[in-house]
Amino acid sequence: MNKPAAQRPSSRSRGEWLKRLGLILASIVATLLALEIGLRASTGGYLFAWPNFVLEARTVLADRDGSRFVHDDRLGYVPRAGYAGPGYSGPGNIAAGVTIEADGLRRTGSALSEAPILAVGDSFTFGDEVKDGETWPAELEHLTGRQVLNGGVSGYGFDQIVLRAEQLADKYKPSAIVVSFIADDIRRTEMRRLWSADKPYFVMSGDKPELAGVPVPQRADPRTTLSFWQRTLGYSYLFDFILRRLDLLHDWFGDHIRVHPPGSGPQIACRLTERLAELQRRSGAKVIVIAEYDPVVWDDPAFAAEQRRLTGGLLACADKNGLTTIDAFEALAATAKPRDLYVLWHMNQTGNQLIAKLVAEKLR
């Protein structure tokens, strides 16, 4: 039944609502623009320069990584042989001397042996924020008097760490292989791109993890990786300022592509310990898996509990498959101030000495 004419909204009434809506939207835009310009004026840095902050951050990362790393079809990337200079500088611009030798191995010292110790892992093994001689592989070489090959690579997931161990073990025939990881390396197995760099990943085929994503594509041009919102809101200093205060820039600036659902990493990483067990059988090298911890663990109890759950699960899988395991948590917690064992995000020399001591005890 049609409404009586008196009950139907008139075209004039609809026009009034549209005008009001238009005024509200205009006032919101004007307010945001005023805040944008006011904030730029107060800082003085971007009043007349309007870059896309997301593109700028990704371009800087690509340029920095392009000098430090070289593409690898199987691993994604490895440190560039012959590179010498500052390492990861981090938020505090702390420069550390880095020397990369053959096969992307970081210099550890001068000890030479026919059956060296191989160390693989992420930035904690590589030794971001410390000099060549202050990484835990270098400290381990000092403690044992045996050559230690530092095969750590910043940003690696646990899947890449396992592949790196296999690759280097086949060439160097080590007597022992030390596999270090932090809990976030488990999450990284769920991704096919991290920090703008494509990577290999594993998928379950039957009852075994099968390598996928190889050969790994070359790094994409940062200009091709922006979403619609990053192409638009990326120009806003106000939006950048808000995300910075909320500590949400990691995902906004980061170029990450997920291939597995969140929470699937622990199962993938667990199954990859079977590959390490096979490597141990095939090579005759003792495989030691050690869990390290990032500094937020000592600041946030809830975060620490989750990190321990993840690392504990992976260590249990490694132990079940006949690998030697070390959980560094108790040793770190037993120090007077665990937070003092870090520079900013990674271990300082004292922290690395403690890690090296734990590994040396297992080697003995």
Which word captures the global form?
elongated
- The ordered H/E elements are HHEEEEEHHEHEHEEEEHHHEHEHEHH
Strand order of the largest sheet: 6-5-7-13-14
What fraction, in percent, of the residue positions are helical? 40-55%
Overall pLDDT, averaged?
A: 91
Rg over alpha carbons:
25 Å
How many runs of DSSP E, i.e. beta strands? 14
Low-confidence stretches: 89-95
State which percent range the strand residues make up.
Answer: 15-25%
Structural class: alpha/beta
C-alpha termini separation? 91 Å
Could you characterize what this model shows?
The protein is an alpha/beta fold and 364 residues long. The chain has 13 helices and 14 strands. It has helices at residues 11-43, 53-68, 123-126, 136-144, 158-172, 183-188, 228-232, 237-245, 249-253, 265-283, 301-320, 329-333, 349-363, and strands at residues 69-72, 76-79, 84-86, 97-99, 117-120, 148-150, 176-181, 191-194, 197-198, 201-205, 208-212, 257-258, 286-291, 324-327. The strands form five sheets. The protein has a five-stranded parallel sheet, sandwiched between helices. Helix 4 (136-144) packs across helix 13, helix 5 runs parallel beside helix 10 and helix 10 runs parallel beside helix 11.
In short:
The protein has helices spanning 11-43, 53-68, 123-126, 136-144, 158-172, 183-188, 228-232, 237-245, 249-253, 265-283, 301-320, 329-333, 349-363, and strands at 69-72, 76-79, 84-86, 97-99, 117-120, 148-150, 176-181, 191-194, 197-198, 201-205, 208-212, 257-258, 286-291, 324-327. With 364 residues, it is an alpha/beta fold.
